[in-house]
Structure formats: C-alpha cells, structure tokens
Design brief:
Blueprint lengths: L2 E5 L11 H6 L1 H14 L3 H7 L2 H5 L1 H18 L1 H4 L4 E4 L3 H8 L5 H21 L2 E7 L3 H11 L7 E8 L2 E7 H10 L7 E4 L15 H8 L11 E2 L6 E2 L2 H10 L7 H10 L4 E5 L4 H9 L4 E5 L2 H11 L1
Parallel strand pairs: 1-2, 1-9, 2-7, 9-10
Antiparallel strand pairs: 3-5, 3-6, 4-5, 7-8
Helix pairs in contact: 2-5, 2-8, 5-7, 5-8, 8-11, 9-10, 11-12
C-alpha cells in the first residue's frame, strides 16, 4: 500500500496526551524529555497533568501537539516502511516536515513555541475569533464572508477548508458575529463559534509574520525524505528553498485541507496514518478520502496493533 502520514493541528490537544505512550515507548519518553530540555520548561507535565487552561494557551498547545506527533512517529518508525508523502493541518505541517527529515525536532520546537506566542500577541493587538460552518460548501462560505465583511477593519474570511460541508471562518469579532447570524440563510446547517485566542489563518495574523520570517531564516531546511503537502498551495513540496516562505504565508492564508488530501490521493496514496493526539483528520477522511484506509495512532495500544499488522 502507498502510505501518507497525517499530522494534526491545534484543537487536538487534551490533558493526559502522550502520558501512557511515554510510559510504554522508550522513544516517546526520550522525545518528551528532549522537548522539556529544548524549551527549558516542563512541557510534558503540562501535557500530562494540565491544568487545561495552561495547555490551551497557544504557546503551549502548538509545541505539545508537535511533540506528541513526533513521539508517535519515532515510536512506530520501524514499522512504517516507505512513506509516499505527508500532510499536516496548520501547526501539523511543522510536524510533517520533522517526520520528513527537513527540519530538526529541536528547531521545530523553538519555532512553533515562538509561532504560538506571535499568534497570541497578534490576537491581542487586533482581537478576532473563528467559527465552524457545517453543511455549506466552499463557495457558499466565501460568499457569506464577503457579505459579512464591511471593509478592512471588519473582515471575515475562510480559514480552514477542511472537507466538503465543513469550513472554518476567521476574522474580526463583529464580522464573525454577522456571519454566524447569516449562516443559515447562506445554506449552512450550523455555525459554531470556536474557543480560540485569535483569528488564525486570516489577515489579522499579519503582525506575526515578520517575527516568524526572521526566526525561520535561521533554520536550515534539508531535502525531505518524502514530499509534504503545503497548506497554502495544496501541492506537494520537496525543494527546501520553498519551505520557509510557505510556512510564513500559512499564518495569514487558509488551510486548504480537503485539496491537500486530494493531492495525496493523486500521488497514489491509498492508506493514511494520523500520528498524534486525537483523530480529527481521520474523521475528516470519511469525506475527503472515501473508502480509503485511515487509522489514527495516538497511544501504545494503537501503535502495537499497527506493528502487528505490519508484520
């Protein structure tokens, strides 16, 4: 089978994430210890014990998700066999580049910790929010956003094009509220405001761009072992020279996730493995990759079962 790796993004974190994995898998334990050492803070304690409010902070949630995903990847590496490509949702794209060998885990940790801080600061400078729209197509969501926006200071845009019938929008508080109020008339079955600290993947994140660009300029990207799909272009990327710029653009551009899965399928993929906390991307594949094998690997039991299947 032709295998693709899926790496989850922010929102998949939960208190207790990775604790059982670290107690069973030596490679996972070493990964959590490395994260604590690199960041100079007890990230693993926050992940395993909380409190939840501390884990939910963007500066903690993003490196926590990266660390858990890398811990799972390292734990099942020998059983994976050849990987055709990978894709990560938002901060998960950093996890994908680590798995592909393009960026070191240590560099990625420092970058995503800073990314989380910069995104939070951008959210305090220009408060915004996000909402999930269910039962509406991409074009309907774009039309709703245009209708709910009223100029550059009251803006809402599609932020995550996750699957047919599931779009997340992002923008200024008043524009988000207008979009929620108009969602049913636009064809959405439901509109759900999300608990986030800012309007991610929208122009409101512009204040975070320069700081991330400067930090990524100090990272050496290697040629990956396998291509990774860019959130920005929904295309497979292999040239190290392209990675940094695309990761910067990702801050203010929508995550084209459904198209990203399409690109992996077009590359010949017929099996997906989600590595890290939760199973959000596996669930989305019920619509994005109908009929194809999709498995979420989070804890030691799932990894043991995968090893058994892999022989």
């Amino acid at each position: 089978m032709s295998l693709a790796l899926l790496l989850p993004g922010q929102g998949s974190q939960h208190v207790g994430m990775g604790r059982e994995l670290a107690s069973v898998e030596p490679e996972a334990r070493r990964t959590f210890d490395e994260a604590d050492e690199v960041l100079g803070l007890p990230l693993s304690r926050i992940m395993w014990e909380g409190p939840e409010a501390e884990l939910l902070l963007t500066r903690n949630a993003q490196p926590a998700i990266l660390t858990h995903s890398v811990a799972v990847f390292r734990s099942c590496l020998e059983a994976l066999g050849p990987v055709t490509c990978a894709g990560g949702h938002s901060v998960g794209e950093f996890s994908a580049w680590v798995a592909a060998g393009a960026i070191s885990f240590a560099d990625a940790l420092e970058v995503v910790r800073l990314r989380g801080e910069l995104m939070y600061e951008a959210g305090t400078r220009r408060p915004g929010s996000m909402a999930a729209l269910l039962g509406i197509d991409d074009e309907g969501a774009r039309a709703l956003c245009e209708q709910a926006s009223s100029g550059p200071t009251s803006l809402v845009v599609p932020a995550n094009l996750n699957a047919p019938g599931q779009v997340v929008i992002s923008g200024d508080e008043d524009a988000i509220q207008r979009a929620i109020e108009g969602a049913r008339d636009a064809g959405a079955k439901k509109a759900i405001r999300l608990n986030v600290s800012g309007a991610f993947h929208s122009p409101l994140m512009e204040p975070a761009v320069e700081g991330l660009r400067e930090r990524l300029a100090r990272v050496t990207f290697e040629r990956p072992d396998f291509p990774v799909v860019s959130n920005v272009t929904a295309a497979l990327v292999e040239d190290p020279a392209d990675i940094s710029g695309l990761l910067v653009q990702q801050l203010t551009m929508p995550v084209r996730w459904a198209e990203s899965v399409d690109a992996m399928v077009s590359a010949g993929v017929d099996r997906f493995l989600e590595l890290g906390p939760g199973s959000v991307l596996t669930g989305l594949n019920r619509r994005n990759a109908r009929g194809m094998s999709s498995t979420a690997l989070e804890g030691p039991d799932a990894i043991a079962e995968f090893r058994k299947e892999s022989g």
